[in-house]
Amino acid sequence: MKTCLERVARALCELDANPPDATMDGKPLWQDYLPEARAAIMALREPDAAMIEAGTRKADDGQKNDLGGIYRAMIDAAMEGAPNAPPTGT
Questions:
Q1: What is the pTM of this model?
Q2: Residues ≥6 apart with Cβ < 8 Å to 88
Q3: Are the C-beta atoms of residues 51 and 88 closer than 8 Å to each other?
Q4: Residue pLDDT, tens place only, 31-56
Q5: What is the chain's alpha carbon radius of gyration, rounded to the nearest angstrom?
Q6: By CB neighbour count within 10 A (0-12 exposed, 13-18 middle, 19+ buried), where does 55 fall?
Q7: Per-residue pLDDT tens for 75-87?
C-alpha cells in the first residue's frame, strides 16, 4: 500500500504531465516531488474552522469511530471552493 506522502508526490508528478511510473536515472520520478508533497501535507496539518466543523458534524452523526470518514469529511471541507476541485464525495 502506498503511503499518503507517496500518493501526494505521485499526484504532483502526474500534474506535471509525467507518467505515473516514470523513472530517471533508475529512480522513480515521483520521488523528486517528495519535498513539495511534504509541504502540502504539512499545510493541512492544522485544520481550519470548516474542517473542524465537518469532522465534528461527522462524529456527532454517530460515526465517531469512522476515523477514515471523519478524515475524508475534513479534507472535503478543505477542498470546498478550491478551483478545479472535484465535487465533494468523489
A1: 0.78
A2: 76, 79, 80
A3: no
A4: 999 999 999 999 999 999 999 999 99
A5: 16
A6: buried
A7: 999 998 554 555 5
